[in-house]
Amino acid sequence: MSKQRLVILGGGESGVGTALLGKAKGYEVFVSDKGKIKDKYKEVLIHNEIDWEDENHSEEKILNANIVMKSPGIPDKVPLVKQIRESGILVVSEIEFAVNYTSATIVGITGSNGKTTTATLTHHILKQELAVGLAGNIGDSFAKQILEKDYPNYVLEISSFQLDDIVKFKPHIAVITNITPDHLDRYDYKLENYIASKFRIAENQTKDDYLIYDADDDILTKWLQEHPVQSTLLPFSLVKTIENGAYLKDKNIIITIDNNQIIMPTTSLTLEGNHNIKNAMAASTVAHLLKIRKQTIRESLENFQGVEHRLEQVLKINKVQYINDSKATNVNATYYALESMDAPTVWIVGGVDKGNNYEELYSFVNEKVKAIICLGVDNEKLLKAFGNMVDTIIETKHMSEAVKIAYKIAEAGDNVLLSPACASFDLFENYEDRGRQFKEAVRNL
Predict the structure, then answer these.
(1) What 8-state DSSP symbol labels residue 34?
(2) Is 111 annotated as a binding residue?
(3) What does pLDDT average to over the chain?
(4) Does residue 87 sit in helix, strand or coil?
(5) At what angle do helices 399-409 and 431-443 cross, to 10 degrees?
(6) What is catalysed by this protein (predicted)?
(7) Per-residue pLDDT tens for 49-64?
(8) How many Å is the Cα radius of gyration of the chain?
(9) d(CA 391, CA 267)
(10) What is the mean pLDDT of the segment spanning 360-388?
């Protein structure tokens, strides 16, 4: 019998990880990337004798696949992807392909905001007592970890794009942190398509599995009423009393699962803001389900350092605090950032707009923002939205210039906040690149 042919579109972290796992499992593997494959990934492919191409998609070498793993960055609208599907070839995401080769307990975390912090925090708590990998949208690829380490447990940060291409994938514990309009450009500008995509995380779950979600999020609760899932529900809330799940009472997080209750003080959380209490609730609920000791959960919440590019305090210069929130790639994330500002703020914003509605930021901008620096190729929408609200609004296309302007405007006691509310691809490689350039520019002041 001839080998099954696995074609991988995209030669990044998930693509190369899948190629390695596929080869080890006996597939004939071909990696194709329309862009340039980074040298470090090329070296891995060459070293492992895996066939590849970049800056091109050779249809004759792709359309003879038995299965195609496509990188989450490639939209379904691409003609080649349509052609692959029309040929009846199965298209899957990395997590769908890889999960077939592990019997690990999987915690899957998705949501518009908070998923990286929640996934990193969950992993931070679990690793104190369990052997556990962290993968998905973060760190080393899931497929590669299964091949090299095969942990008995994984925490996966999963985007809606990865969930779009699952078939049988199901996490034992699923978390949906929240849903706000994001990436609508990939979902025909229909919010319900995006919501449905997020809820695929629970579509294969049974009553023996768990879904942890934000009960204060109207989009989530309404969807669950209209589209019930099989899983056991464990909601969390800041305002309601929750019988099975987590809630806040007198500055304590109270988590109850099958009458087994634990109580955590929020006063000792290292991360600030209500949204981080929610992230802590979700992570602690997962830990409680997996029988982590209460003392361990509490200590882990107290010593967790947070995530790079997420409200990261960079430096204080002349009594001005510089804050890197480059990970805020949508309006809701920036909402949390502005909400947590307790001083007059010079706000650096802009990039690739995904159909943003800036109205929910107006009250914070009026109250807290003294100047706006637009950092994008096209800032027209920002100028229209905020032009009348602040005395100073300036356009620039270079991070170093944006930071220098901010330095001139800010006075002792102010904050300078990079919280773009947009994707970064117009001027930067990705949000990490944008955040690192910001930090470098601040250090060079």
Answers:
(1) S
(2) yes
(3) 92
(4) coil
(5) 50
(6) UDP-N-acetyl-alpha-D-muramoyl-L-alanine + D-glutamate + ATP = UDP-N-acetyl-alpha-D-muramoyl-L-alanyl-D-glutamate + ADP + phosphate + H(+)
(7) 999 999 999 999 999 9
(8) 22
(9) 37
(10) 92
pLDDT band at 418 (very low <50, low <70, confident <90, very high): very high
State the DSSP string of 258-313.
TTEEEEEESTT-SS-SHHHHHHHHHHHHHHHHTT--HHHHHHHHHH----TTSSEE
Question: Of the candidates 393, 405, 402, 392, which has an alpha carbon nearest to the alpha carbon of residue 427?
Answer: 402
Please tell me whether residue 54 adopts helix, strand or coil conformation: strand
Q: Does 278 count as an annotated binding residue? A: no
Strands 67-70 and 51-54: what pairing?
A: unpaired
Strand bridging mode 312-317 / 260-265:
unpaired
Cα separation, 74 vs 36, whole angstroms:
14
Per-residue pLDDT tens over the stretch 310-369: 888 899 999 999 999 999 988 988 998 998 898 999 999 999 887 888 998 999 999 999
Angle between helices 218-226 and 191-199 (to 10 degrees): 70
Query: What CA–CA distance (Å, rounded) separates 324 from 326?
Result: 6
Distance in angstroms (rounded) separating the CA atoms of residues 210 and 217: 18
* Dihedral sign (CA 20, 21, 22, 28): positive
Q: What is the maximal distance between C-alpha atoms in the chain?
A: 73
Distance between CA 222 and CA 123 in Å, rounded? 29
C-alpha distance from residue 99 to each of 136, 146, 254 (Å): 11, 8, 33
Distance between CA atoms of residues 261 and 185, nearest Å:
42
Residue 119 has pLDDT above 90, yes or no: yes
Is 115 assigned a ligand-binding role in the annotation? Answer: yes
Tell me the two tokens of residue 8.
């991988």
Q: CA of 363: how far to CAs of 186, 334, 344, 366, in Å?
A: 29, 13, 14, 5
14, pLDDT greater than 80: yes
- What pLDDT, on a 0 to 100 scale, did the predictor assign at position 224? 94
Closest CA to 416 of 335, 313, 267, 309: 313
Give the pTM. 0.82
35 is in an annotated binding site: no
Q: Which two tokens stand for residue 415?
A: 């904050």
- Whose tokens are 């830990």? That residue is 287
Q: Is the CB of residue 419 less than 8 Å from the CB of residue 349?
A: yes
Place of tokens 């520019």: 441
- Please choose, from the candidates 277, 341, 285, the residue with its C-alpha nearest in 3D space to the C-alpha of residue 313: 341
The residues that bridge with 256 in the sheet, in sequence order, are 245, 261
Name the amino acid, one letter, at 394: I
Domains and CATH numbers, the chain: 5-92 (3.40.50.720), 96-303 (3.40.1190.10), 312-443 (3.90.190.20)
